[in-house]
Design brief:
2 domains; 13 helices; Adenine-n6-DNA-methyltransferase TaqI, Chain A, domain 2; four-stranded antiparallel sheet; about 20% strand; alpha+beta; five-stranded mixed sheet
Amino acid sequence: MSELTKLLEGVKVEWISLDEISELYGGLKGKNKNDFTDGNAKYVTYKNIFNNNEVNFDTLENVKVLPNENQYVIRYGDVLFTGSSEIASEAGMSSSVTKSPDSEMYLNSFSFGLRFNSEIKLIPEFTKYLFRSKYMRDAIAKTASGVTRYNISKKRFIKLQIPIPFPDNPEKSLKIQQEIVRILDSLSEETNQLTAALQKELDLHQKQYNFYREELFTLEGKDVEWKSLGDTEYFKISAGGTPSKTKIQYWENGIIPWLRSESCNNTSIYKAKDFITEEGLNNSSAKLLEPKSTLIALVGATIFKTGFLEFNACTNQNIASIKSLNTQLINDKYLFVYITSLYNELKSQMKDYGMLNLSTLRQFKIPVPSSQEQERIVKILDDMDAKTQAIISAIKKEITLRNKQYEYYREQLLTFSY
C-alpha cells in the first residue's frame, strides 16, 4: 500500500461552499496617487499575490492610511485573490497569509481577501496549495467574465466548494492538513533545488563562455583585417517592417514567420510566434531574410541583443539584419558571435547611443581573421554551448518529471480522490 493510499485511507471529507464558512472583503478604497508616495503603512500588491502562493513579506509596499479610515486589515490565515486578468485562466490567483503581520497590513484595490470563520480550522500552509491546485484554479476561472479583461464575480466565487478534511474533528483535520503540507513542501523543495541547479549551470556556462569568447577575440598581434558593416561589398544591412494591423488580410492565416525584437536574446532563433501573409509582406517594408542572418535589436528592452536566424523569416522595424555577402571571407556564424560579444560594451555606452539605427550600425567595424581562424572560433564556442545544453536538457527533463509528480500528488491530496 503506497504512502498516498495510507494517508488518504479513511479520511472523512466534506465539500463545503465558501459562503458557509468564510467572508470576502475588499482592498484599499478612496486612495489617490499621492497616497502611495510617502506611506506610513504596508500593503500587498497585485503582483505579490499573482507571483506567490504565499504572501512575500519582503516585497510589501507603502501606502498612507489615516487613523480614522475604514479600511480592511489583513490577518494571519487570510487568502488573498487578484480580482481580474487579461485572460480568464489567470484571474483570481491566490496567495495565503502564512505569517502574522507585525503591523497593520492592507490589500491593493485590485484584489480581494477571503477570511474563514473561527470554527473552521484551515492552516494557511494548506490553503496556499489548495487554491492553486488545478481543480480549484479551473473552478475559479469559471467565475470570471469579460471581453478584454476578465473580472472575478464575487457572487459566483463565494459559492465555490472546497474540501474540508474531518470538519467535525479539528485535531484530525489539522493532522491531515499538516501531513499534506509536509509532502507538498518536500516535493516543492526538490523542484526548487533542481531549478537552482539549472540556474547555477546557466550562470557558470555564461561566465565560462564569455571568458573564452573574450580570449578568442583578443586580436593583438594577429593578422586581421577590419571591415566596416557599411561596406556594401561585404555586408548587407536592412531593417524590417510591420504590415498594417488594420488590414486583416495581411495577418489572417499568415504562414511567413515575423519576429519582434523580443526574439533577440544573444542566441540562435529557431521559431516565430507571429506570421504574416504574402500580401502583408508585399505591402510593407518587411523583408524575407535568409537563414544565417544576424539580427540585432535597435530599441527597447532588448536593444543591442542579437539573434542568429536559423530559417527564412521577416522582422519588424525594431530589428536590423546583417548578412555576409562573401561567406568565403566572412563566416556568418563568426559575424554573429563577434557582434554578440559587443553586447556588454554597447550596453555600457547606452547614453552614447540612445537607440541604434542603420547609419550607426554601418559604422561598426568587424575584425576579419583567416577563414580557418573564424571556423576555429565558431567551433570552440559551438562545442562549449552544445555540452552545456546537454547538461541543461537533462536537468530540465528531471524538473519536468518532478513537476509532474508534484502536480499528481497535489491534485490527489487536495481533492482526496485517490
